[in-house]
Amino acid sequence: MSKTKIFADKNLKIGAIDQNIYGSFLEHLGRAVYEGIYEPGHPAADKDGFREDVIALIRELGVPLVRYPGGNFVSGYDWKDGIGKKSERKARLDLAWASVEPNEFGTDEFMKWCKKAGIEPMLAVNMGTGTPKDALELFEYVNHPSGTYYSDLRRKNASEKPYGVKYWCIGNEMDGPWQICGLDADSYGKKALQTMRMLRWADAKKADEEGAVKFVVCGSCHAQMPTYPEWDRVVLEHTYEETNYISMHQYYQYKPSSKDPLEDFLGSAHNMSEFIDTVRSTINYVRAKNRSSHKVYISFDEWNIWSQDAPRTEPNWVKAPHILEDQYTFRDMLVFGGMLNALLNHADVVKAACLAQLVNVIAPIMTKKGGGAIRQTTFYPFRYASRYGRGETVRSITTSGTFGSMYGDAKLIDEAVTHNPETREVCVFLCNYSQKAEPVELELRSFGDLSCKEHIVIANNDLDACNTFEHPDSVLPEQREPVPVIGGSTAEVTLAPMSWTFLRFSY
Ligand code: AHR
Fold first, then answer.
1. Fold: same for 4-10+394-506 and 18-388
2. Which residue, judged by its Cα, is nearest atom 3 of ligand 1?
3. Fewest beta carbons within 10 Å, which of 33, 153, 252, 412?
4. Judging by beta carbons within 10 Å of its beta carbon (0-12, 13-18, 19+), is residue 208 exposed, middle or buried?
């Protein structure tokens, strides 16, 4: 058995890890809002109808930021339908998900929920049926102190103080042919620029000024789009000086019908890394072309595993249909772990990311109407990364072997190494994509005298194992014995076949 050697040095920093890479996403879709975070009358709901059992799980997951209200939903959403007296709010058709939107939960409820859950809001504005004026009016409602129609309406409806929302997504997936009133890159770039200018004027601060709001323009909605990466270049050429981020979205799926189903799926994180590298290059290209000193980062604000072939079982045009309720397998969890590593290993350019989504809809948390809430398999790697993957990512060099996939050759042992100078901890996140046990030597000399504080493994003989309401604990992280650290700097561990491992050292 040949040993994989991984070398990491504290002086070779990739970049500071922005806590917002542990963000998530909540869309008016299926049972994400209704029966997910909001269920008046549920035994665990507070007086506002917010499920406290779900909030407790979100806190455990460690999510600092949530993007809302969509997603495809936002491109047909009139935010004015979701404010004011609930008894006067109108139900509307949601064309994105062929559902009925009752508008019982809207902007004010979301802001209140964020406050209770300790979450930073990221609001998306409608660039489909919506105009720059609609976006400005929402901005005025949410962020302007008082003395105007919409700010005073907010004061009357819900909150004397403005909410001070900092993060604003300028539309959603406007390159997607499925998007309500989708646009070509040129038209979207112009519309996004005009919208951001109006919001900046309302904010009365420049793009790089301290305390200014931050914008995210829509990048390609996935790397297989025929318009990628040209879309990103054109949009950035229009918007570079006003925006702070360009978005990336990507979902992967296990396809039993593909040529090498397992290898192709396990290669996903490799593909995600290459996708990030291309968008980074596009940002750099436009920056150079503009002779600009302004920095634009990536907001990877939708990422996950999603079985998009799952049949729809609910009738259309109902409130909160059971749709996109993927059950995550142990196999999904392995790929998910690699995707987290890809985000960490690009900490210099990915400064926000949203796991899509948070509750019930392609989510780490599932609820039952009137019942309990469970953690899916993917909950666990996210929880460890968000809790301990803090500080900065350091570059790692590996001798790992590779395997072939539809995305090219990917590492058999995928790694990310983080260093938190505040807690004096070094964390190593490892995915073993090999069917065999794999010995690994971690050479961490530059950190000084290390001792292993925690050794967590998620392993399972059944790739299809899932956590369900009947068996919520089928896939769980296990505490193992701390690994030996030879000479205070070389740790040795044997990774179980097809497994996820987390190691925490302190010095
Ligand atoms: O997260 C589900 C959907 O995926 C979102 O609504 C959309 O933005 C993406 O296509």
1. no
2. 71
3. 153
4. exposed
